[in-house]
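Query protein
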Amino acid sequence: MLEKKLPIDGKKFASLILFLVLAVVPLFTSDFQTNLMGKFLCYAIIAVGLDLTWGYTGILSLGHGVFFGLGAYSMAMYMTLQSTNGAMPDFMKWSGLTELPAFWRPFINPAFAIVMAIAIPMVLALVIGFLTFRNRIKGVFFSIISQALAVIIPLLISSQQAYTGGTNGLTNFVTLFGMNLYTPTGRRVMYYVTFAVLIGAFLLCMFIMSRRTGRVLVAIRDGENRVRFTGYNPTNFKLFVYCLSAGLAGLAGALYVPQSGMISPTEMGIQPSIEMVIWVAVGGKGTLFGAVLGAVLVSVLKFAVSSSLPDAWSYIIGAVFILVILFLPKGLAGIPSKIKSHIKRGGAPAVPAAE
């Protein structure tokens, strides 16, 4: 009777608790830890967008690191020109260039850089998505194509030393809009800006999934051919969600650069792209809340383990991924429902030992 009088959406309640905890993190952490958590919130923005494509629509992208990197490079180009007052950076002079390349010049405008951080990944996603979805390429074949993208783009950027900084990337960012990023105030401001963007991305995705568009996306995941037979064009919906996810990843990259102080091709390759998928899988795909939880917890675990056992991290994250797939197919977000179903079956109200 109590459940009927006071209906409570468990996922929404858990999301509220999680965001309340994230809101007060800077009050109880050092400046270094605040900066670190700010980066993890950037990862959470990527995870929310990726969950929209994979968890709800069934499009497994193994190349989201590229979209993240393109957004990061867009912001990094602005910050580089800001630090040189619009002059040519040193790495270009060392590479033999005599003037600033034409495609660099518009990035002196911060508004242009922010727009490009979102637009460039979305345009690339539109091209890739149009060529693949239109030809009904899906499943593992699409995943392989997206992974190939995570090989080609970093190699291309690394090879253009004179224009992109090569393998070293773009580094040494100290200020943004006149604010010193290494002061306690600067780090807290960036944390809460990232936190606000994460909430906005989360609410946007929740809104989409609460509408008819969201129901169509889930239907595409469960049976694309049936959706096509009912009169909908799955290609348009898949293009929409894939481009939106790419735009969120680019925005996350733009927020990441001021907090990390650098961006390089290694941060947009295969390994980061696969880790993004693991965040969603561990947290629980198809929940949004789980994507945020997984991105933050896995990133915290990575920092804790890699700082003491750097060579062991790859093995640990691989083992975690396998265990989650085997014993928690719905991720951490699925634990409460699993406990509830176990209780209804008459079992003990505890998580099985294997979990």
